[in-house]
Amino acid sequence: MVAETAQKSAISNRIAKICCCQFLGALIFAIGLAVGLTIGIYVYHGNKRESFSLEQQTPQCPTRNPIIDLDYESSVFAPLTTREMVQAAHSLLNQSVVSSLDAAIDLRQNFILCMYLHAPEKVKVINYLDNGGPKVGRYAKVYVQRGAASPPDVMAYKVGPLGSETPTVTPITKEGDIHFNARTYDTVELAYYDKLVKKDMDILAPLMAESFDGAVYPRDLYIFYFNGPPGYRAEERETRFVVGFSGFDDKNDMDLFHLLPLSGTIHCPGTNSSEWYTYSFYYLNQGPYQSSSKLMEAYSHGRMRKVKLFKGFRETIKSRVFPIRDERKPLRNFAHQPGSKSYQPDGPRYTVSGTKVRWMDWQFHIGAGQMRGPSLFDVRFQGERIVYELSSSEIVVTYASDTSAQNGIIYTDASYGLLGGDFPTLILKDTDCPHYATVLNTSYWSSSTQTPGQLQSICIFEVDGQEPLWRHNSISFAAGLRNRFLIVRVPTVVGNYDYIYEFKFQMDGKMFTTVSATGYIQAAFWDADNPHVGSDKTKSPFGYRVSDYAMGPIHDHTFGFKVDMDIISSSNTFKLINWKAGSILEALNTQVNIQEAPSYFVYNQTRFIKWETLRQEKGLKLNYDDQKFWTVVNEKEKNKWGVERGFQIVPLHTAAQTLTEAHPAMKALSFTKYHCAVTKRKEEEQHLTSMHDINRILDPKGHLDLMLDKEGIVNEDLVTWLTVGFLHVPSSEDVPMTTKVQTGFMLKPFNFFDRTASFDMPEYFESSNHEKDDHEPAPETCYEEKYKKFCKYC
């Protein structure tokens, strides 16, 4: 019994000890938790106070508005304003040149197609700018489609001076110069097309439903009409059309990736649309059938080869072309974090007055027009004029494919308009330009509404190139200048392609002009059973297969620019510096006439240069087997060393025209044969092409070869017409979007200065013994308001 009692007592004591230990453990845990929470709360609030204190103590990065004013109408070069467009339109209406300014217009009326600033006369502008002469008035150049005239035609008018009480209206072209059937396309004409083709689509509905995965027009399909040119001669007008899927949410967005093997032609001359008709129908390149009924009959009776898209294809269309992130793929490492940004440490270093820009000894005016695109005028560096006009003139795109509607397509984009259209803005926020860029507007005339519109289309900003403009690291010193430059960037849209023009100004006097292409390709239908395609079903003579039913037709992009250089004055000469290789005697005899080479030359072969003055107007081509420097010089102006001051024209990566002279369009596209053409400046020679020549390719009126009439060009006012571009063989990486491809040219000082032009800028310099140390101005620590991020040099 005693033993049993002792055992129970021992068990009770053990339980008591366990409970005591558990209580102590719980007490220690509670104390630790309380201490931890206290420390955590203290640290949190401390950090919060520190962060708040940092934000209070660190100033916001300074900024200022670089815009002095936006008074375009006081400028000689600025784009037309909407107010000026309205005044020009009412002047035409008051003088009965146009029938009305009502949106409800038709082909038999006179209405405005487009308008932009009429180029002011250069002699008068120079007199105004340089000599204090009378100010040059602003005029509009207006194209009017005259459907009410007999016979109908297209006329161009000069209207102004704008801002005056009674602007005058002066014809620029003669009646009948531009045939009515050679007019550019507009929405009025397209509305007639839709009514006409709708009847054919109703007839072909069973064919489309069976062939194209149950597609119904116009629910799933649309008609693409721009498969130009519409005729070899001005009197003709034949519009090829092709059926395509509507891959985007808005039916007005053209899905040119999913074009289908069903096409036809609209015979559409004149103003009487009741006489228009459709004919020449093709299905899978089988035809032509005189009518949609004839095609449907052949299809229904099994007299032709057929195609059936796989079931459910229509459901995949949007995912193939819509440019949104592929959510099936994981984000890349750290992609959830914001990317790097650019900042202005002490605010903008440029000013904008109207469209006149000043930055780091550069000054220039920005111009623009809805048909020809952006331009620069009166470009000066350190007070001296270098360029009077640098302007976009034309973009040509030529396609090749084995499809009924799309073979032989040629686009001259100036006939559609390089800077205008149905877009709320051309600039994509935080994509085209940094957030701190200055944005300018341009205006355009809408032919469909007969009213002007405005676009955010130009952005200006300074950027850090993240590289040296020059540097040297020596034993006794190290020195360099960080490269910063000003950019004027102008994005634009022409159908499926987006183009980005860029003018870049550097601190050493160099100017870069580039243009980039992006957007999405105009594809053609991939017919796996095409009898013209061999056993390899991945490619054809015209391109590669890039999707289930799409191939990428080969094409090129050719960009033409007008560059009216005035090196200090308008009296300039174009000189070639030929880069040669040969014997020593050949080299020395370019300067003196000797019979024997000096003995100190190690080899009897060397490189040397040979000078050549271009004396007559001429077109030049790049030839890498016979390389030349192109320079424009002022023979009357010399630098400190007695050398003629000038600028060199340096093409960047570019391609050459591959079409032969036998192609029917080469006359109209003659500028594409050359990389540089030099002409004596004339007021009437404003552009490389006529907007209407693509519609009359056998008898063009405004092409470059007409300008090259062998006039003398020594010590004259010269224009250099520069052509750059690239060939495009679309590949699968171009789907859904073609990433940016760039070309362009540089204007580089060539003995223009006595020494490197950037040594009036503070740069980095440190000597080994630190007797002389210099550095660029350093910004203070600040934070950038837009992103609320702290940075030392933001």
Automatic annotation (TrEMBL):
Active-site residues, Swiss-Prot/TrEMBL: 413 (proton acceptor), 497 (schiff-base intermediate with substrate)
Cofactor note: Contains 1 topaquinone per subunit.
Positions of post-translational 2',4',5'-topaquinone modification: 497
Molecular-function GO terms, alphabetical: metal ion binding; oxidoreductase activity
Protein keywords: Copper, Membrane, Metal-binding, Oxidoreductase, TPQ, Transmembrane, Transmembrane helix
PTM info: Topaquinone (TPQ) is generated by copper-dependent autoxidation of a specific tyrosyl residue.
Cofactors demanded by this protein: Cu cation
Entries under InterPro entries matching the protein: Cu_Am_Ox_Cu-bd (IPR049947), Cu_amine_oxidase (IPR000269), Cu_amine_oxidase_C (IPR015798), Cu_amine_oxidase_C_sf (IPR036460), Cu_amine_oxidase_N-reg (IPR016182)
Transmembrane feature ranges: 21-44
GO biological process: one example: amine metabolic process
Superkingdom of origin: Eukaryota
Family: Belongs to the copper/topaquinone oxidase family.
UniProt-recorded name of the protein: Amine oxidase
The species this protein was found in: Sinanodonta woodiana
